[in-house]
Amino acid sequence: MLNIATDTFAARGYNNASLAEIADRAGLTQAGVLHYFRSKSLLLTSVLERRDQGDIEQLGPERPRGLAFLRHLVDTALRNAEREGLVRLYAVLSAESVTEDHPAQAYFRDRYTGLRAFVTDALTEACGLPDPDAPRTRDAANAIIAVMDGLQVQWLLDPDAVAMAASTDLVIRSLLSTLAPDRFSN
Amino acid sequence: MLNIATDTFAARGYNNASLAEIADRAGLTQAGVLHYFRSKSLLLTSVLERRDQGDIEQLGPERPRGLAFLRHLVDTALRNAEREGLVRLYAVLSAESVTEDHPAQAYFRDRYTGLRAFVTDALTEACGLPDPDAPRTRDAANAIIAVMDGLQVQWLLDPDAVAMAASTDLVIRSLLSTLAPDRFSN
């Protein structure tokens, strides 16, 4: 059931997906779906929560630190090229979440806030920077998250033209060289 | 009329926007809107074409070259922070375009193909690289476009947390240092 809902939201977006279609593909009635999930927006919440299991940004204090965290981001980009459905779900819903009254708006706002803090921490630690709140470190962290997101849309439209992991790795290495030229040479 | 359609597509996405609402806000009947634009998808085409006027990727052979082109991208990110409606339109529709049978899918695929070629050219020229088809240059070009796109979604959700122009500038400078360390030092 959640697989079908995931596929349908990824293929159509949340707003354009219909509960009737999801129920039909799952061999249930709409009333049957609503019995378990109460509403279309709560079904979306279940899809997003399941998607997060095992994702690094949900690891909390147990996550890898510093350079190991940044390497994990490149590994994630590499794995993403093997899981097009999840990439599509995330790309479509994160952008759709900025539309009016979207039920996943708070989810994505909070997700980015958490991710930004994690990547900023990792850069600060990897580069041995004195100030954890330096604007340039924050700008670099936001850029790393942005490049991963933006590459997904380009890759979904034209997979042969985009190497998500190689581009992500290049940006992270280049930013490390800028933030800490003594530690990371070009 | 196109302003109202632009605002409505930006606020709701294409799939979720209704012609009835657009007509109503414009003080027209649906038949009146269809008289001028034929269909909802042709109305979207008109909105996207108008949005492109004056945008750098449409400048063709007259566009600035090399470093001047890259600087123009940073200027675009700076100007984007003053035109939230257009940013929203682009962010929502580009991601929505990867959904099934979306009428703007070819538009965005072509747009990215063109942009990638322009940014690859600019990097090759700015860095004095011998090979215009080097994979690393392509990876860097894709990343620059991606970072601009990804920052828009983060900024729309949380404007105070994201400096689009500063992050874009930092990524471009860092990539230049990686691609041509003799020309661009950190």
From TrEMBL, chains A, B:
Lineage of origin: Bacteria, Bacillati, Actinomycetota, Actinomycetes, Kitasatosporales
Residues of the HTH tetR-type domain: 1-55
DNA-binding residues: 18-37
Keyword tags: DNA-binding, Repressor, Transcription, Transcription regulation
Entries under InterPro entries matching the protein: BetI_C, Homeodomain-like_sf, HTH_TetR, Tet_transcr_reg_TetR-rel_C_sf
Listed name of the protein: TetR/AcrR family transcriptional regulator
Pfam family, one: TetR_C_6
